[in-house]
From TrEMBL:
Family stated for the protein in its record: Belongs to the uracil-DNA glycosylase (UDG) superfamily. Type 4 (UDGa) family.
NCBIfam families linked: UDG_fam4 (TIGR00758)
Record protein name field: Type-4 uracil-DNA glycosylase
Assigned keywords, A-Z: 4Fe-4S, DNA damage, DNA repair, Hydrolase, Iron, Iron-sulfur, Metal-binding
Listed EC numbers: 3.2.2.27
Class of this enzyme: hydrolase
Classification lineage: Bacteria, Katanobacteria
Cross-referenced CDD domains: UDG-F4_TTUDGA_SPO1dp_like
Molecular function GO terms recorded: 4 iron, 4 sulfur cluster binding; metal ion binding; uracil DNA N-glycosylase activity
Domain Uracil-DNA glycosylase-like, first and last residues per copy: 32-177
Length: 211
């Protein structure tokens, strides 16, 4: 059985040579994700942008700068957490990823998360949230914890959207500063999602933490 480190390394190598969808033909570099694979918290965005495509690293443009500053405010550096995207190659002109492209990358992210086994997944934007919670609405569900299979998912607005919209920026920052309290509450529940206290039920039957 491969170690966690070897598993992640192998996945990254497979992502870099992946040709499962059309995006590999227009992208410059694949962006597998990076950071501390032993972190209890991971951040998952939508897809690489222009700077990410050039460097092969996630969140290194203006949105990445906002993410790093927001992490610093809650006592983290980007190297303390793991950061990735649901899509591993940049869609042309930063268009929305298509369903078949998401499906093509789905296995990679699933295996990365299985290896890392985070206590909390912070989803950045609606595409990332809907990957875990298809019925979700970002304006309704942001800033609360939602169970998705074995994972605890905490949706926030995408940093790029926050940069374009002052209202979203306010919500993004307020939700972000709540992350340490969410993590502390999950840790106190012994990381067992079925025993998380103060669970409230969504109207559609999904479960979330009342925080």
């Amino acid at each position: 059985m491969l170690s966690k480190e070897k598993t992640i390394e192998q996945l990254e190598n497979n992502i870099r040579v992946c040709q499962k969808c059309r995006l590999c033909k227009t992208a410059t570099k694949a962006v597998p994700g990076e950071g501390n694979i032993n972190s209890k918290i991971v951040f998952i965005g939508e897809a690489p942008g222009e700077m990410e495509d050039k460097t092969g690293r996630p969140f290194v443009g203006r949105a990445g700068q906002l993410l790093e500053k927001s992490l610093e405010k809650i006592g983290y550096k980007r190297e303390n957490v793991w950061i990735g995207n649901i899509i591993k190659h940049r869609p042309p002109q930063n268009r929305d990823p298509l369903p078949d492209e998401i499906a093509a990358c789905e296995g990679f992210l699933a295996m990365q998360l299985e290896a890392i086994s985070p206590l909390l997944i912070v989803t950045l934007g609606r595409f990332s949230m809907n990957y875990f919670y298809p019925e979700g609405k970002i304006s309704r569900d942001r800033g609360r914890v939602i169970r998705s299979g074995p994972y605890n998912v905490y949706p926030v607005y995408h940093p790029a959207a926050a940069l374009r919209n002052p209202g979203m920026m306010k919500d993004f920052l307020s939700d972000f500063v709540g992350i340490p309290a969410v993590l502390k509450k999950l840790e106190s529940s012994n990381t067992v999602t079925s025993n998380i206290p103060d669970v409230t039920e969504h109207d559609d039957g999904q479960l979330g933490l009342g925080l």
